[in-house]
Amino acid sequence: MTNSHPPESPGARLRNAIEEERPLQMVGAVNAYCALLAQSAGFRALYLSGAGVANASFGLPDLGITNLNDAAEDVRRITAATELPLMVDADTGWGNAFGIARTIRELGRAGAAGCHIEDQVQAKRCGHRPNKELVETWDMEDRIKAAVDAKVDPAFMVMARTDAVAVEGLDRALERSRKYVEAGADLIFAEAVANLEGYRRFTQNLGVPVLANLTEFGKTPLYSLEEMRASGIRIVLYPLSAFRAMAAAAESVYQTIRQTGSQQGVLSAMQTREHLYEILNYHDFESQLDSFSKHQI
Questions:
Q1: One of 44, 161, 176, 201 is an active-site residue; which one?
Q2: pLDDT tens-digit readout, 36-73
Q3: Active-site residue 201, yes or no?
Q4: Is the preceding peptide bond at 23 cis, omega within 30 degrees of 0?
Q5: 179 vs 229: CA distance, rounded Å
Q6: DSSP letters along 69-88, please?
Q7: Which residue of 58, 66, 156, 271 is most buried, as measured by CB atoms within 10 A?
Q8: CA atoms of 181 and 179, how far apart (whole Å)
Q9: Separation between Cα atoms, residue 78 and residue 64, nearest integer Å
Q10: pLDDT mean across residues, the chain
């Protein structure tokens, strides 16, 4: 009889990745195939953006229009394709305390390693857009407590995102973040920080890992990994980098085919069929299919 150990939970895999890679590079994947591409590139952790769900899966803006079921379906597809731990954008938690508890349980069942909940009002906005409104600190503390209490897997990571830097200033954002950590948050997501000194203030004053969101075309400069490491950041997030590039490539291909009547001019920009098959392990599946067909009656 062989000794077997239960597999690590997604939350445990994410915690290990945060400890082992400093800072951890976390990349956005809007679908299962993108997750496989990120895995092939050597990344240790994945991220499902709320904007990614809204934009890519539904063709909608990131204004709190999508819901738990929408995100959970994308989570299930991604976690079925890869063992890489997945952090999920849960917006404001999708409901009151009972709704947030359901969010944690459903995302955990779907295979997520963790999620973040933000301190905006229910009618939330993109973190790098103007006119954001925040809930009171105690309201966000209750969101975090509800999330932590609902964990089925103790290793599931609850991250508190604060949008207070752009709304109330750095000092108030730090004050809020300390309260969120006291409420049980495992991590802090400091959104829309405009300089390295701001990040250093977060990392030096909080006792949990801090995430920096290096989304393109936003309020935060695209700092290097070395600059993030020197600032004490433990997770560097690239939430929609691949999606933006994919969208630009798709626009170019569609326009070329429409205008020239052929895709010949954009073949060099395409992933080849053979490389697609390599990422998908297509030939292994086909070999199994061949072996099955030989024994069919």
A1: 161
A2: 999 999 999 999 999 999 999 999 999 989 999 999 99
A3: no
A4: yes
A5: 25
A6: HHHHHHHHHHHHH--S-EEE
A7: 156
A8: 5
A9: 21
A10: 94
